[in-house]
Design a protein that fits this description.
binds beta-D-fructofuranose; 6-stranded antiparallel beta sheet; mainly beta; Jelly Rolls; 2 helices
């Protein structure tokens, strides 16, 4: 991972020489790993999605951005807009870290429409001269004409008793005349939790209590909470740090998951089921949700993780966001499906049906670099089958399905350049139902696999060579009858 001095990390874009920035833009644009239908930064590092909301006839999606390199430095909010959540337009910087309260970063937060404005509620990160962390909750307003005005003072300027200064990522919602806010927090005994605030007017906030889950000692910090009702179920998302791996679960450095249950809004106690990961791949963190204009709950995550080095670091940039997913709760289970409007990206379609057997078969003329692939498993008598994507002489990104265990494994050992600081080369998940469909989106340097119509999702970056275009199938023993439907994708989401 890259070593940057503190001075380098906390440089402002405004003080950075213009020619040097031009050079960064060119260096990033020349990267062979630039995505074609995912949101990515024009230079530097992108992390969490922020302020996601439908306002004034458009979707607004912001992200955490350090413009000057692939490190977690001084964070800005970068603004994108979209008509359909498929194609996004870059607007520019929305929030600059330019006050004493956010001098060391305009950290993550959410958006909520209040009258004629979109309120952006975020964490101001400040460091004292002795580098102690101070956290303020801040507000900015986006007007209908596009002007963004920051409030001069924090809306929450202190931390209640019992918490450390790891106190950030406000998510605000409105219910029956009251605004509520959940904040990711750390107790003074160094366990993670969520703090709840409420307000009548968005300006004056009072601390209510912790959001009490059954997890009293579950990691040392919870980042990026999100809470919403979905059908009859209450859904709480959060990102606990410091959870040990267990069987196939929790292999990434930090986790991003959810519990389903019932939140009592008078006591803020939640009865809930077990914490489950939102994604079972290598690269997913800090998601955020909003309602689309038809009332669907849409989730977008960061396709990356903290404290991990990526091959594009050398090219001066890092990360992208995931595709939007539609969330539902069906039979008490959360399902995540790709946004139906993504079909707009579809170009030429090719279909094929056939048996995969022990012999390794390359599918012809099946190949590609950026595409959507739907694999229907019509009959399966194999012990284990393999679908390999982005295959070249030396490379392959392999999906394995073991029928007896109902276990899907994504193996990126041969996927080309590897991220640094990642535990292992495989991620696995056990399905509730036999695997009947894989719905896969492959972009230049990523793969998102939706299993069984949104039962599970596996999202990962992959950094293969230009030659890695093949698709191959085979089995360990026995045979599988597949139907393949492949669409070329005509993406270019940012313009
Ligand atoms: C999560 C996170 C947030 C914080 C932001 C800073 O990735 O650490 O907790 O607000 O990133 O960029």
């Amino acid at each position: 991972m890259m070593e940057w001095t503190r001075e380098e990390r906390y440089q402002t874009l405004e003080s950075f020489p213009e020619e040097a920035y031009e050079a960064l833009l060119e260096k990033t644009a020349a990267s062979p790993y630039r995505q074609t239908f995912h949101i990515q930064p024009q230079t530097g590092l992108l992390n969490d999605p922020n302020g996601f909301a439908y306002f004034n006839g458009q979707y607004h999606l912001f992200y955490q951005w350090f413009p000057l390199g692939p490190v977690h430095g001084l964070k800005y909010w970068f603004h994108t807009v979209s008509e359909d959540l498929v194609t996004f337009k870059d607007v520019g910087i929305a929030i600059r870290p330019d006050t004493p309260f956010d001098s060391h970063g305009a950290y993550s937060g959410s958006g909520i429409v209040v009258d004629d404005t979109l309120k952006l509620i975020y964490t101001g990160n400040h460091r004292t001269s002795t580098w102690e962390r101070v956290s303020y909750q801040m507000m900015a307003s986006l007007d209908k004409d596009g002007t963004i005005t920051k409030s001069n003072e924090p809306i929450i300027d202190s931390i209640p008793e019992g918490f450390t200064s790891h106190f950030r990522d406000p998510k605000v919602w409105y219910e029956e005349g009251i605004y509520y806010m959940v904040i990711g927090a750390q107790r003074t005994d160094e366990t993670g939790t969520i703090a709840v605030y409420q307000s009548q007017d968005m300006n004056n906030w009072s601390y209510v209590s912790e959001l009490k889950t059954e997890y009293k000692d579950f990691g040392y910090m919870w980042e990026c909470p999100d809470y919403f009702k979905l059908d009859q179920t209450d859904v709480l998302l959060f990102c606990p740090q410091g959870i040990d791996k267990y069987n196939d679960a929790f292999w990434n450095i930090y986790q991003s998951g959810y519990v389903l249950g019932k939140l009592d809004q008078s006591t803020f106690e939640m009865q809930h089921g077990p914490f489950k990961e939102l994604d079972n791949g290598f690269d997913f963190y800090a998601p955020q949700t909003t309602l689309d204009k038809d009332g669907n709950r849409i989730l977008i995550g960061w396709m990356g993780l903290p404290d991990t080095g990526y091959p594009t670091d050398k090219e001066g940039w890092a990360h992208c966001l995931t595709l939007p997913r539609v969330l539902t709760v069906e039979n008490n289970q959360l399902r995540q499906r790709p946004l139906p409007a993504l079909q707009k990206l579809r170009g030429t379609v090719e279909t094929a049906e056939g048996y995969a057997t022990k012999k390794n078969v390359k599918l012809h003329p099946y190949e590609g670099f950026q595409y959507e692939l739907i694999v229907d498993v019509l009959e399966n008598d194999s012990t284990e089958f393999y679908i390999e994507l982005r295959v070249s002489k030396k490379e392959s990104t392999m999906i394995t399905y073991n029928r007896a265990e109902r276990r899907v494994t994504l193996d990126r050992f041969d996927s080309g350049l590897q991220p640094e600081g990642v535990d292992g080369y495989r991620r696995s998940v056990v399905l509730d139902e036999d695997l009947s469909q894989l719905h896969i989106f492959v972009d230049t340097s990523s793969i998102e696999i939706f299993l069984n119509d949104g039962e599970k999702v596996m999202t990962s970056r992959i950094f293969t060579s230009k030659e890695a275009r093949g698709i191959r199938t085979s089995t360990e023993s026995g045979q599988v009858y597949f139907k393949f439907t492949k669409y070329d994708l005509n993406g270019n989401p940012q313009s």
